[in-house]
Amino acid sequence: MNAPSRTIRRAQAGTTESAWVRWTLIGLALSFMFLFLVLPLAAVATEALRKGVEAYVEALKEPDAWSAIRLTLITAAIAVPMNLVFGVAAAWAIAKFEFRGKAFLTTLVDLPFAVSPVVAGLIYVLVFGAQGWLGPWLAANDIKIIFAVPGIVLATVFVTFPFIARELIPLMQAQGTEEEQAAIVLGATGWQTFWRVTLPNIKWGLLYGVILCNARAMGEFGAVSVVSGHIRGQTNTMPLHVEVLYNEYQSVAAFAVASLLAILALVTLVIKSVIEWRHEREMKAIAELPPERPQAAVAA
Question: Which pTM value belongs to this model?
Answer without folding.
Answer: 0.81
